[in-house]
Design goal:
fatty acid metabolism, disordered N terminus, 7 helices
Length: 379
Amino acid sequence: MVAPINMRLQFRGNWCNANKGGEFLKPSFNSSCNTNNTLNNKRRFSLLVITASSQCSPGGMNTIKGMKHVPLVHLAAGKLANEISREHIVTLFRGRFVEDRFVYRQTFFVRCYEIGPDKTITMETLMNFLQETALNHVSSCGGSQNGFGATQEMDLRNLIWVVTRFQVQVQRYSKWRDEIEVETWFDVAGKNGTRRDWIVRDHYTKEIIAKATSIWAIVNQETRRLCKIPEEVRQELVTFYFNRFAIAREEIDHQKIQKLTDDTAESFRFGVTPGRNDMDVNQHVNNVKYITWILESVPREVLEDYKMTSITLEFRRECTQSDLLESLIGPSSSVIGASDNNSINRKPGLQYIHLLRLQDNKAELVRARTDWHLKQNHE
């Protein structure tokens, strides 16, 4: 039988296993254990793996006081492989397959830096959870370790994925310290695309709190042009195709988002500049960053009194670090009442049209449509 395992983060100081039924360790900065008193700085933040039979005894470079030093995340899985099952490792550090390996599930714990002023997660945080789960899904399916969500054959042909349309529906936003489950799968979409869906649930009640669907295409990384899915890539994917819709077909937003112009826009934000940290490994702006720029043009009183219940994005071209952008917003036909930003004389359901474009030549980057409902404490 595998011995019980305790895991703690190591900070400065010495830790010693009291060996009392696998109890958690107590920090001791003046420990009498006869071992090296100084740890390498690179090991100050490491995962300690202690079995119930560990003893407080001198060790080598990788053992201190009977405790193994294991780097976090991926390397930790390798070190722990001899002590716990692979299934446990995958579940603990990333996620696992369910429903005959067609669906990939990952659990997230909401941290304090992932919430907004109302103590709930932001749309950007939710989108990051979706993206992280999708990438881990591809990797777990045998995808390339070099490509950002690419398959082995895509990596050989210098191909990458780009999203063309994204829709998210939110029933409620998780709070700080909530634990949620994100499930994802993908399927074919037309001749040269794939559709990826997500369902987000409360980890304990299994209540569905958000849904999302998206369409992806393949681009040549050098030419930055769309291309057909090679047959070799299609064969890699077809085994994992799963014909299920997270959002019911009749609820999927297929309607083209109307064009926003200078005359129809309600407010502008000029001089939006991508920073180095806004770029992903494919050298274009991360999809989530567009949402941040879009929401920065939303009137403050809307952000305070309303919650966004859905967002649909149409990605028209990629953005580079040298681009200078402007963000526009305007009410759609469902907005009723005064358009004055200093007051909200509108019905509980608002809908806005958004546009991100290049500031110099006005070329469109992203169109978006958002729906908002009045928060309960304002009803």
